[in-house]
Amino acid sequence: MKGIIAVSGKAYADICLIRETIVYTEPVHADDPEAETERLNASSGITDGELSVLADSLRDGGREEQADILEFQRMLLLDDNYFGKILGIVRDEQVIAEYAVSKCSAEYREELLALDNEYLNERAADIKDIEQRLLKNLNRNGEEKKTASSMIAVAVDLTPSEVVELSHRDLKGIILEKGGLSSHCVILARSFGIPCMVGVTGATEELSHAGKVLLDAVEGRIIADPSDEEVTAYHEYVQQAAGEREALEAFKHMRTETADHRKMGVYANITSPEETAALLDNGGEGVGLLRTEMLYMERSSAPSVDAQYKVYEEIARGLEGRPLILRTLDVGGDKKIAYLGIGEEENPFLGYRAIRYCLEHEEIFRAQIEAALRASASGNVKIMLPMISTITEFRKAKTLIEDVREKLVASGVSDIPKASVGMMVETPAAALMADRFAKEADFFSIGTNDLTQYTFAADRNNEKVAHLNSCFEPALLRSVSNICKQAAKNGIEVDICGQAGEVDELIPLWVGMGVDNLSVSIPSITRVRRTISRCDYKKCKELVDEILDLSTQDEVREVLRKERGEW
Ligand code: PEP
Ligand code: MG
Predict the structure, then answer these.
(1) What's this model's pTM, rounded to 2 decimal places?
(2) From the alpha carbon of 453, which atom of ligand 1 is closest?
(3) In what order do the strands lie in the sheet with 212-217?
(4) Does residue 101 have a pLDDT over 80?
(5) Does residue 295 contact residue 273 with C-beta atoms inside 8 Å?
(6) Cβ–ligand 1 contact at 519 (below 6 Å)
(7) Is 426 in the pocket of ligand 1 (CB under 6 A)?
(8) What mean pLDDT is predicted for residues 314-322?
């Protein structure tokens, strides 16, 4: 079986098949209601186990509030008004388990929403959550036995929150039928250092009868139940990779500079406080992108100011003065958060996403800004706005941020200085107006994942257009080059926090274009620093001139390949 390499590496483990859930809205007759009851009880057992593990790990990470939500969901499994009622529907109406779960959940949700009690209204989202879990686990027949050990997840597609959840278990690899190279699922896999292949057509069907699988995301192959020789070759690879990691150790705490001593920085992209220690351990010089939306996932209502403050403060303090670039909520696109009520959209990546949503939901935006500003007392916190496409949006957001700050100061919370407010440059509109934005923003961070998808009008999650979604295309390189030029002209820093920042072949171009910092996944920090150290700034500038004159990505790749050969 073949596919597209999304996160390079190899893994060999049991298969954990994750099937898509089907929601039945019409009754489906069950020939054997007793068997359905057994399926329900098994699903409830697996669900309870999952929630318990997840709640423990959240508690260990200091996220008490989120853990309590999961405990509430566990209680529903013992509740006669919920799980008891589901069993009753199967018995009395002689229907399949899936229908009973959906019917009972829909009724329970409606009852909660009809109450004049905000807390209970919000619990409706918990019912949605537990319904999803019960449905998913109804189809897992005995898989838990396999997933107790290390595993490779095989699915048509996974949501970002599913990846976060799986990462709490011993997840060694991910194989997806769908998915583009910069989907958020892939981004998370990269930050957890989990090898991943996408676009593997027919994987769930073909692997459904295999026990173990060898995921070779180096050669781009997937081997079900590999032979002894293939397993031996895999173990040799593991040893060699350990050797490579050891060689990179020397670059952990080295100053980041080119061979001709131009100073740069290597930051990391993170999603939670638990990653701060790993970042420091790997020699990260700061957080170039905190994807705060992950904090809004895995829960059924928006986090309070205090809950957010706790998380941001912990990261800021842990970084001991190093920069923390906190990106405000980038919900929408492929990051769906049910309780925020964005709803179904025909083109979610072109829709109600990130700053567009936040500017119309001031209460959500203000709460996040308040938490970020309060956390800035504990470190070097900068605020970054995602998906900006017009100057008007940027100004509105900046005004709101300043208003929140003034109110905080007036209320005597503390004397918070003006925030440094930068922006992601990730829409073609922002790239084209970089000269104007550079006069208003305190810094730029180029989101090459989105900038590429929007420049080429090619969905970043669609494997069929993955060839268009390439940072080697001259159009994208010209755009990045212009953004860097405008940043330099106006004396502001420019970083890259999209995945292209850690592509080895492209790093000489980022150096030559004058990028200040590359924000990359934690496992890549040392490799990126080593690559920068091999670059000569002056030569890289010449290389940029040569590259910007080319017409195709093949030509770009060819020149960069030759360049690498000279190192
Ligand atoms: C990007 O678009 O490059 C980026 C870093 O943001 P995200 O991947 O979260 O959209
Ligand atoms: Mg983006």
Answers:
(1) 0.79
(2) 2
(3) 4-7, 196-198, 171-176, 151-155, 9-18, 212-217, 221-224
(4) yes
(5) no
(6) no
(7) yes
(8) 97
